[in-house]
Design brief:
globular; 62% helix; Glycerol uptake facilitator protein; 10 helices; single chain; mainly alpha
Amino acid sequence: MSAVTAPLKTGLGLKRLGGLWGECAAEFLGTCVLILFGDGVVAMAVAALPASGRAETSTTIFLASGDWLLITWGWAFAVCFGVYIAGGVTGAHLNPAVTLAFAVRRKFPWRKVLPYSLAQVVGAFVGAALVWWNYHDSINAYDHAAAAKAGTVLVNGHTNATFSIFATFPSGAFHGSMWGPLLDQIIGTALLLLCIAAVVDARNTIVKANLGPLVIGFAVAAIGMSFGANAGYAINPARDLGPRLFAGLAGFGKLALPGSVPGSFSNYMWVPIVGPLIGGVIGIVVYDLLIGKVLDVRAQLGEPHEEPEKVTETDDED
């Protein structure tokens, strides 16, 4: 398919759109699409499939690891297409942790950190609102069916399961402690920035043919498969905070704000904000110290990039 470019229309506001306003618009839309696909796939797995009769029961979710793979791959494609949409304008941060890390180590202007982050949170909020608009009947059907089951904990008539469509919460294995989930978010986001730094580094094994967004999506899938269950792998403050704010307005109550379930955990909402911001900076600093500096030194010394030794195939002699 050949590239198609929309005709440029001149008029008032053109200069503004070419500057910070245009960049924020791209971050808003890219993050909105990220949440539409990401929260959308969770809504499918948790509420829509059971409500439509495509699951074993009206409350059956996560019978096997394949159910989790549906979500991890859904989020991978969500990131991929969000980056493709906004990448030509801003490079597609779509994540305050990425924006902060790039300001710390990539000379991204500090004056743009807050506007980018606000645009990302608002985009995530709008994306979550659209997911709710599309799936609220299925969400309410799931919560109604779950309420009839013994032992189900409801907060404002909603369950943790349907809340997980919008934002994250910690595993019961932590018994209410915030330190385990915080560490989980730091490690997961450090891995994300480590991978992003490698993918976009022209000095390294650069991804070609405009496949960078797809590879970054693969990295998100890998993090979800390897680190997802402990705390829902938010690894993005906007991805959690924007939908969490919407969920609070949509009636999820303390489940969303401040992120509490009686007897399980309390005031959790700060963890998927602080953890990713710390982890993102750690990830990009580690990359620069252990990989970036090596590549810089090699370039200064004029050392050629060493290609892996190739084995020449020969015909076997009888």
